[in-house]
Amino acid sequence: MRPWILLAALACGGETTKGGDSAEPATSSGSTAAGAPGGASTGTGGTGTGTAGTGTGTGTGTASTGTGTGTGTGGSGVDPASIAWSLETNTGNPLSATATLTSPEPTTLRIAYGPAGGALLYSTPSVVVAPGEETALHVLGLYPGDWEAAVVVGAAEGPRESVTTRPPPGYRPTTVTPGDGAVFDPHESICASLEEPPAYVCTDREGRPNLYIALPLNAMFVRPLDDGTFLAHPDDEPSLLSHFDVVGNPLGSIGLRDLTGATFEHDWIDEHEVIQITKGAWAGAWAVLTAIVDRTPDGNAVGAGIIVFEPDTGAVLWDWSAHGAPGDRMSIDEDQLPYRRRGFIDYEDDWLHANAFVHDIDADGNEHFWMSLRHQDWIIRIDAPSGEIRSRFGYQGDFVLVDDLDAPAPAELPPAEFAYHQHAPEVRRLADGRLEMLVMDNGNVRADVDGGELPGASYSRAVRFVLDEDSMRATVDFAYGATSGPDRWYSPAAGDADRMPDGESVMFVRAVGDAFIREVDPDGEVVWNQSVPEEGELYRAEFFPSLYETTWTYDAGW
Q1: Residue 9 has pLDDT above 70, yes or no
Q2: CA–CA distance, 545 with 521 (Å, rounded to integer)
């Protein structure tokens, strides 16, 4: 069993490879060599040889996005005091600063920083700078207070500069309760979008805000991209994807009207999901969830679609619709997704309420999407590019839920063990070809063994399923949540569940009621808990090993 972090929210319904100790670059004889950092992550430099002072060395470094070879310029003989530099806080993210540097000689350097008057506990990734060229380096994670920073070359520290950061406007403090004996890396951050005021906010493990980016409109959530930038999708009009960097600089926006070449008619970009595809034929493309309305004389019904597009041009690479022909009151596949089929709660014209999808490639190389349909209590597999609905995971779907996938005659589990009104599935292929699926099981209602509604079944879980697509069986590998007692909790809408970088713990978000973000271990023991003010509103949350390593989820295979 593995530990998990559970993320619950207030809105509607592999290991990471860290680049070593970011505080010190690797050193070679007489020089310093640094591996190329992966995106915004910190890479660990390899070793090389060179003459003291300005010699060069070449080494290999493992970045959080893979293994890269970096060429470092020796600089242990460069006096950091000779490097001209300044430090100013950023407007877009006032809990960050930008260091502007010019070195008289080629060197490898970093910015070390910490609370004023103390040790410099934090560090930027090391960078190679050319002589006489101005270099800008972002300094992240400055919770409110007085800070000091210095240029560091090798082990030599230059004169310190000072900056002061203040609590962001409208920020409401959170309460953090660590588990017994819990010890955390000071670089770790937990991030989520807040509704009022609209902002993307991160805190450290002590609950101090260390990133704050004001958003033009309330966003359901913010999606980190594999280059260290972010996408926000407002749930108000105009329905535009906003692209920005880690210090709040806007990088552009894109809306449905900017996309060209779609096969189906899509009515609007749904605010519940946007992803970046990082593998397969569409690697580098973005994909959005859309809403598609089937309009007929006797009423309208909202379905769902997907558009995969090239972000630079808006060219549609592939799209899909759950509806059949407009106005026919039929789905794209009446056998697998009957138009009149509902889950336990009838939501009238909100037929599917799709709230998430993920991209995956199976062991045979077939690309597909898993789409969460809250009002069907299903997570369906849509093969691409055919658009065929291959399978449905959930109650009355295509998988049998059993106690042991490897038993000769496994026992079937009760239907209440499926996920109901679920949110935010995440998938990962295991070494044996099976699928690991993390789900926020909201559990508004559950089925009993006779197909009726199970009394008193409104409780939530963060649950890990393992699916065997050959046998069409699945099992519950881990679940946190109970029908009663201290482990019972309930989030009737929204929420998230994420595997932590250690591959063991789970973090989840409770969305409604006494909102919290909580990490638990495989035994269900609370490792860390953050209570969120009632006025705040979460939908999902993300864990980052460091604000310089916001790409870890892609490396971990999620």
Answers
A1: no
A2: 17
